[in-house]
Amino acid sequence: MASSLVSSPTSSFLKKVAFHKCKKQVSKKIVSVMAPQQSERKTYTTGSVKTGMTMTEKILARASEKQQLSPGDNAWINVDILMTHDVCGPGSIGIFKKEFGEKAKVWDREKIVIIPDHYIFTSDERANRNVDILRDFCGEQNIKYFYDIKDLSNFKANPDYKGVCHVALAQEGHCRPGEVLLGTDSHTCTAGAFGQFATGIGNTDAGFVLGTGKVLLKVPPTLRFVMDGEMPHYLLAKDLILQIIGEISVAGATYKSMEFVGTTVESLNMEERMTLCNMVVEAGGKNGVVPADSTTFKYLEDKTSVLYEPVYSDAQASFLSEYRFDISKLEPLVAKPHSPDNRALARECKDVKIDRVYIGSCTGGKTEDFLAAAKVFLASGKKVKVPTFLVPATQKVWMDIYTLPVPGSGGKTCSQIFEEAGCDTPASPSCGACLGGPKDTYARMNEPKVCVSTTNRNFPGRMGHKEGQIYLASPYTAAASALTGYKDKSLSIVPSTSQLSIYKCKKPISNNISMAMVTRQSERKPATTGSMKSPMTMTEKILANGAEKAEVKAGDNVWVNVDVFMINDISGPGSIGIFRKEFGENAKVWDREKVVVIPDHYIFTSDERANRNVDILREFSLDQNIKYFYDITDLSNFKANPDYKGVCHIALAQEGHCRPGEILLGTDSHTCTAGAFGQFATGIGNTEAGFVLGTGALLLKIIGEISVAGATYKSMEFVGTTIESLNMEERMTLCNMVIEAGGKNGVVAADSTTFKYLEDKTSVPYEPVYSDALASFHSEFRFDISKLEPLVAKPHSPDNRALARECKDIKIDRVYIGSCTGGKTQDFLAAAKLFLASGKKVKVPTFLVPATQKVWVDIYTLIVPGSGGKTCSQIFEEAGCDTPASPSCAACMGGPKDTYARMNEAQASFCT
Ligand SMILES: CC(C)[C@H](C(=O)O)[C@@H](O)C(=O)O
């Protein structure tokens, strides 16, 4: 029977069932421009075929003379180009001399590029001295590419001088597809625009590279950003990267490669691709990369005679995550003070009073950036209302500003248009005030001003004054901001959009960047330690207590004492086997009162191996005199088994084994469910389980930043008024699925709801712990739940999120309500309320599998509120659902062939 659950039935289902109706008008999309994140791709199977690799993996494999490299591998990489500048060059040279000797020669004088660019047009003696050190070194080493500056009073008198290193590297042909380019600057990632591996390194590494041409690198996993759709004429690459950073946060890509693909990316010119890659470091990215194509080859034509060989990601390459964007829906963005991920729509900032505009830097001081700004000024015909500083990145950009005619201007150059608009005269090319610089740096923010800037960072003090406020924006937005009319002496960042045709949005656009995700806070800095004990998160505190230590910090490995240890029929026999092998056939478990044995997975089946597993648990529990063994002996009638519970995670809670502040481990990944009680709860493997059975202790790495998928090896702490309003079972649902994001554990602070739930369930004294106010969190995500709509995760991944109503055309064959996630009493009450409100019959087989005996009993006895005394079971019967089954994990994970409600045919099912 194939019917469409969410189609016409469901639209009407949403309309007619008042109970389920969304109160407010909500945005049409989950994320207006972010298409659903694709599921993590599974690693391509190795075998006789070579494993698929991403571009980054391939470039590094080739540079390390290896056939194959995977994320996490460490490899010695042969470097094609090493770049250094006036800020880090002297330090790197110092290390090179110290390690290789005063007279040592660099590994290859033609592969080192030295570019003074940061603190150039200043009378600061130490800054000038740095350039002298570079000069001495280049002379001594006969470095082929040294872009020197001698006469600081007139940059034009220095034919060798270029300006901002990242732009100069490209213009001088040092960026080539497939190569490895390293630089002592975090924005070295810019060169990824050329389809190469480019990243910033520290002075110590650079000193080593100077001597050897090699570096030891860990291969990063790759995040893939697919950007499709025609780019609206008011957008620039800066908006794309601000969107991405806003979405994934400043830590979102830590030690990851960011690969940019899609039709939008293909349509970008080289400078725009450079903008995209330039800011990957602002998301923590190791490198950014755009596949080389005809645009790349054309750009390179007159720039290099070095042969290069582009590489591309294999079709079977494994990406950590894939993000898809429909760029046609994007609006101009800014990053508000004081973090590059503090994303907002430009027009949301219309009441921000600004004092100045800055167009420059490796991010926004390229020829295309000035052309973009000039187009806005030209279209407006007006004058800027605030000082507008223009700092070309390089001499070439400066020259372009003075010579290239701006399209549609009747032959005017940028410089003419800027003059007519009342901007400051373009300054000498350098990094300028992007990073503050010495006091006399042109356009440095020496007072606390508010600046709209095309640069890359907006941390406090970045452009000079620590109270300055920097709004990062595209050259369009920056120029438009400069023109915006004063209103009560205030200046809005974005002009009334009708003012500038270039800036006008063609289509109606959604109001929100993200519907439910209102902001994503920047990574919090670790609180300073001192004589004080370090502030800790809940998880850290629980583990510190468990390890009998005053404090622990992320990354520490500590032995923790386990409070409760749970095994079930799937992994219990394996764990028992290991325990016996390691501790001896006659060994006793460390504490018979702390081990909880719960058969729950494959119970109501005639499968012999499944039944045998339960027998093993029974023999073991008897032999060890395990206090909490929830046995099932009569498989034909679960009610005849008073000890039997059902799904372990729910049983653990119902039987009072979940207690605030404790450490609960289990041989099941959903053991994290118990985090709902404000405890540390996580799943472990059989080997560790065997060890825990024998010792009650486990070596754990304190949750820290270990990269990989969304929350891999991270603790997920849930707080906020919405969470406080949830009952215990709902909190359990929340914690239950942290493992689906790769989380190590989930945790909800214990409160009166927790204590009340526990009242009649345990007499064990427990001591809740809470995160310190100053605890350091890896990231903080904020949600306005009032804006959320019902969601589903479509096949075949729990992160394949969609609005339920977006699936209205999906034909479904069945519905399944059950499991440790959605088979609790509250889950059945919720379903019953819906059936009750509708009064209709189900259109597809609807299977109900209570998690435990207690849930089963609740279904048959608890009165559904507002039903005039009906139980869930009555309502389910009236709605035509299947009779509630025996409690167990059942078909949640398939199970033996005869498992109730197992999907034995290819069907589409909605499951809880
Ligand atoms: C000076 C240099 C080390 C620094 C960097 O690496 O990023 C600078 O270029 C910056 O933009 O902050």
UniProtKB/TrEMBL annotation:
UniProt keyword annotation of Metal-binding present: yes
Signal peptide (residue range): none
A single MF term (Gene Ontology): 4 iron, 4 sulfur cluster binding
Domain of life: Eukaryota
Matching Pfam families: Aconitase
Keyword vocabulary terms for this entry: 4Fe-4S, Iron, Iron-sulfur, Lyase, Metal-binding
InterPro entries: Acnase/IPM_dHydase_lsu_aba_1/3, Acoase/IPM_deHydtase_lsu_aba, Aconitase_4Fe-4S_dom, Homoacnase/IPMdehydase_lsu, IPM_dehydratase_rel_enz, IPMI_cat
One BP term from GO: L-leucine biosynthetic process
Domain called Aconitase/3-isopropylmalate dehydratase large subunit alpha/beta/alpha: residue spans: 58-344, 347-485, 698-802, 806-901
Name of this chain's protein: 3-isopropylmalate dehydratase large subunit
